[in-house]
Amino acid sequence: MNATIHEERSGMPARDCPERPPIVLIAKDHERLHALLNTPSVQDSVVGRFLREELDRADIVTRDVASTSLVRMGFEVEFVDHASRHIRLVRLVYPEEADTEHCVSVLSPLATL
Asked: What are the b/e assignments for 30-60, b being 16+ CB within 10 Å?
């Protein structure tokens, strides 16, 4: 659930949202995602504010510590699309890599659920 929707529904600030799962990032992905916050299209956007909150609460690990059970940038993720009632398989990518239907940008609304 994205931060804006959660805050509107609950009145609780998104950062205090008990429904958000833990976030673990490898240092390289954290640095690259943080750099996205400085791009003009992201800086003052709702997605940018949500990404900043998520990065602020993320635990950072080295590549050799990161578990294969974690979703990382470039990994494929399978999930249920409740709107279409289909199971979808997508790859989580950076915005410039989201060039196919199979790829989902980390800045897309779908990636913030």
From this structure: beebeebeeeeebeeeebbbbbbbbbeebeb
In the chain, where are the structural domains located? 3-112
> Tens digit of pLDDT per residue, the chain (113 long)?
333 333 433 334 444 555 777 888 888 889 999 998 888 888 888 888 989 999 999 989 877 665 666 778 888 888 887 888 889 898 989 988 888 878 888 888 765 55
- Are the CB atoms for 30 and 55 separated by under 8 Å? yes
Instruction: Indicate the pTM of the whole model.
Output: 0.65
Cα 69 → chain centroid: 16
CB 98 within 8 A of CB 109: no
